[in-house]
Amino acid sequence: MLEAFQLEFMRNALLAGILTSVACGIIGTLVVVNRIVFISGGVAHAAYGGVGIAFYLGFSPILGAAGFSLLISAVMALVTFKNKQRADTVVGVLWAVGMALGIVFIDLTPGYGVDIMSYLFGSILTVPRFDLVLMAFLDVLILVLVVVYYNGFLAMSFDEEFAMTKGVPVKGLYFLLLAMMAFSVVMVIRVVGLILVIALLTIPPYVAEKYCRSLSAMMLFSTLLSCTVSIMGLWLSYSFNLTSGATIILVAAFFFFLAQVFEVLRERKWNRSESRD
Amino acid sequence: MQRVVMSTPTDEPKAIEVRDLSFSYNGHLVLRDVNISIAQREFLAVIGPNGSGKTTLLKLFLGILKPSRGIVRILGKEPSRVVSEIGYVPQDTSINKDFPISVLDVALMGRLGGAGRGYRYSAADRRTAREALERVHMWEYAERPIGRLSGGQRQRVLIARALTGNPSILIMDEPTASVDKEFQTELFEFLKKLNDSMTIVVVSHDMSVLSSYVKSVACLNQRLFFHDAAEITPEMIEMAYHCPVDLIAHGMPHRVFRDHEDH
Predict the structure, then answer these.
(1) What is the dihedral sign for C-alpha A29, A30, A36, A40?
(2) Judged by CB atoms within 8 Å, which residues 22-81 of A form the interface with B?
(3) What pTM did the predictor assign?
(4) Which of A23-27, A123-127, B18-22, B155-159 has the lowest mean pLDDT?
């Protein structure tokens, strides 16, 4: 395992995995407890529109994806704020429109050889230095914002109406959360691709939720689990020559099912000791 | 902790004042021409069937919703300007029981907001939260996750959360919905004590909130029927529920109908 990480591209991949895990753990936790997983999926797929536009206009696809998903997330925040559960149609439409735009713009782009697959399934092995710096910057930004507004996010996620009665700017925080989600999604696209974003964003927090007693603990646990998953996935994909993004997701899924089985066993044990009393 | 207003009742602002209030949602009229004036240290029960607009009325009191027409004043001011005066106790069913949060952290939420407050809790905030939890006998559960409490215990925590804000008005949505009879009695004893220094508004579809401690009753069904006494007239119920009174009055504390002339 260690010799694999002596290669520079593997070191970069490792770093990308870890940097992404920080954003994933923090924002994924907020996404899961606010039950907006579907919205994160929508933003991830719509981001492809940004990739297409960036190719067409000839600038950095990651910046295109970031800008476009930020725009889409603002639109989604606007339509879903009042009614998070029933806005799924609009989210579904934006999801599809974003992807379609991306495909059409790439069709319109002169020349041939745009590597679409890397955006669909990730390209962690070819992460450029610029992206790493951008990821680190976004991590710091997300960390600072979540620390500063932690109690506001906590109140909003737990009981939005009560938070409103206390004068917490719930609407502002919701827009902020979706904006941060958009940035996280763009980072995750690099690692596992936009099709698999939801898995990496939500599996670690979903597992963590069962074992944590506070939102901050859940963020930390998710981040660590996400790191573990990325490192193991990378190593397995290197060892067995598999697609890295998909391998990372399968490792995450392994932990997900492990947690489910453990949960069932724990409950059974709990029930047995209850009935003995 | 307690605030005592020493002025005479005449120049004291009303706890809640609602004038000609109407509220529509998606073109559907939910509340029509609601007028009510609730004095400080009043104990009001608003009852009405499901879908009568009770929760909407509460949200208008709380400033979460804005009236389509008419005005709402809390202590003479806009609801959004007096957030620290109101303690809101939502329905237990609105709480996500899987949420990773401890009892103490829930209670602390009552300290959010207010003028110039950030999002950090101070030692004083923690002290207030502890006092509130002690008042509802839940301090020993401070570290317990909110999901691992009974309905009655969770209700106490939600009351403590409202009290940590040190409010002068307590607003409760369906407080008796997910608790047993024993806890209901205890709850109303507790509310009676709070009522010495606090205005209390309780909203429910369930007549069991009409304990003998309630000082006045209003019936809601799009319109509000209110008499400034703890008396519920057959007409009020008839209008609010559109069904025969004796059906609803069954099992209701008799004192609500009589014995409150001294108010």
Answers:
(1) negative
(2) 33
(3) 0.86
(4) A123-127
For B140, phi and psi rounded to 5 degrees? Answer: -65, -15
- Give contacts of B120 with chain A, Cβ < 8 Å: 151
A214 burial class (0-12, 13-18, 19+ CB within 10 angstroms)?
A: middle
Q: Measure CB to CB from residue B114 to each of A159, A167, A218 and give the nearest one.
A: A167
Pairing of strands B169-173, B28-38: unpaired
pLDDT tens by residue, A164-213: 888 888 999 999 999 999 999 988 888 888 888 889 999 999 999 988 99
Q: Return the amino acid letter for B71.
A: I
> Using only C-alpha atoms, what is the Rg of chain A?
19
Question: In the predicted model, what is the mean pLDDT of residues B177-184?
Answer: 78
Task: Please state the domain extents for chain A.
Answer: 4-276
Instruction: Count CB atoms within 10 A of the CB of residue A207.
Output: 25
- C-alpha dist (Å) from residue A197 to A39, A118, A187, B182: 12, 13, 9, 50
DSSP state of B1: -
Binary contact (A162, B95; C-beta < 8 A)? no
Residue B164: CA count within 13 A, CB half-sphere = 34
Give the tokens for residue B230: 């703890």
CATH architecture, domain defined by B12-75+171-263: 3-Layer(aba) Sandwich (3.40)
Q: How many helices and strands in chain B, by DSSP H and E?
A: 7, 9
> Which amino acid, residue A39?
I
CATH of domain A4-276: 1.10.3470.10
Query: What are the start and end residues of each CATH 3.40.50.300 domain in chain B?
Result: 12-75+171-263
- Looking at the complex, does the CB of residue B80 fall below 8 Å from at least one CB of chain A? yes
